[in-house]
Amino acid sequence: MQIDTTPKLKSYDVVIIGGAMMGASVAWFLANRPDFDGTVLVVERAPAYEFSSTAHSNSCIRQQFTQPINVQVSQFGADYVHNFRQYMGGDPDVPDIHMQPFGYMYLAATAEGEQVLRAAQQMQAAEGAGTQILTRDMLAEQFPFYNLDGIRIGSHNPVDEGYFDGGCMFDWWRRKARAGGVEFINNEVTGISRSGNQVTGVVLADGTQIGAGHVVNAAGPRAGQVAQMAGLELPVEPRKRYTFVFEAARPLDVDLPLTVDPSGVHVRSEGKYYMAGCPPFEDPAVAPDDFIEDHSLWEEKVWPAIAERIPQFEALKLIQSWVGHYAYNTLDQNAIIGAHPEVSNFMMINGFSGHGLQQAPAMGRGLAEWIATGRYETLDLSPFAFDRIPAGQPLLEQAVI
User: Fold this and answer.
1) Is there a contact between 346 and 217 (Cβ–Cβ < 8 Å)?
2) Which of 63, 92, 201, 255 gives the lowest tally of CB atoms within 10 Å of its CB?
């Protein structure tokens, strides 16, 4: 559909910079609040979204984290997926979203890795997750296709873990947000106006100035650049992550859990194919428009790791590959959400470092609550507050893929 480039108003209660998954989530949850009747503008520089992290996501969801708040966030995400139509107001035109519940499988090859998985499982179980620790014998019995040389234990949760149609959720959030009065434009924010401890508006690429009661930074990998426009530093940068889709000459006769190998490579079923991913050999920040692939990664890292762990995958045919960007929080690879302590109406929903899509329902809901009421009403997201950044106190998450 055609998207306007010019805003209809000169000022908005909320201006959201970035219309991909996080921006759409905030927009929808604001539009869906009976107690919020403010005006909302979403500014998206590339509304085809072909270069967004959302478009490059593998749409996975898990509860196997090492921080309780991340487990809770993803539990709401799973409930949201399971009850999508209900959460979207019961509209019969809204489709059900199916979750493919094959689970994640973390494999530990060291005593330290085993300790991390065992401690995490105890915490996850206390939060109501279905994670189970599997010994080598249990792994061999339940998943005989693994080569378990060097593996000490596995951690598996087939309950509310797997992948889902994140694109469907994203599409309907935008549709329903528009129906609820949110305005979307195709333009780029090139400046943010600020007076003391408040932002007052944004400047568009064509010079248009728009007043704003709140400005929401939902710019994904470009979040650091957006923060700088407001005179703020945000430790979020684009980092490349690779995805490979392949066909196996000897496919498994069961679905493959998303297997996180000690090598750093992960692989899962993808219909009749399989999907693998990993970071590059070196992992620097890159330009936000750099999507150049290192084709040696498949031959030198990914394929050898897959064939070593699953011998049936020695004969493969690569079908497709692509590079996406993590919005990488360099402090602790966890979200940064809420108001900036120095600029109280500059709102952040940034730095998800690869687990943003599954967290988008809880995060969008939470930020909408904060904008509308000044507090979190449902799930307390304060562990993700910006304050930990200047304090150098990371919210250490050890289960980052």
Assistant:
1) yes
2) 92
pLDDT tens, residue by residue, 209-243: 999 999 999 999 999 999 999 999 999 999 999 99
Dihedral pair phi/psi, residue 356, rounded to 5°: -75, -40
In angstroms, rounded to a whole number, what is the distance separating the alpha carbons of residues 214 and 199?
A: 7
- For 25, the token pair is 């989530």
Nearest to 291 by CA among 264, 255, 326: 326
Tokens at 39, concatenated: 């005006």
Helix, strand, coil shares of the chain as percentages rounded to 5? 30, 25, 40
The pTM assigned to this predicted structure is 0.96
Query: For the CA atoms of 30, 218, 50, 272, what is the dihedral angle to 10 degrees?
Result: -80
Candidates 54, 36, 13, 77; CA nearest to 378 is 77
Q: What is each CA distance from 49 to 5, 46, 55, 310, in whole angstroms? A: 16, 6, 6, 35
- Is pLDDT at 19 greater than 70 in this prediction? yes
- Which of helix, strand or coil describes residue 111? helix
pLDDT given at position 1: 56
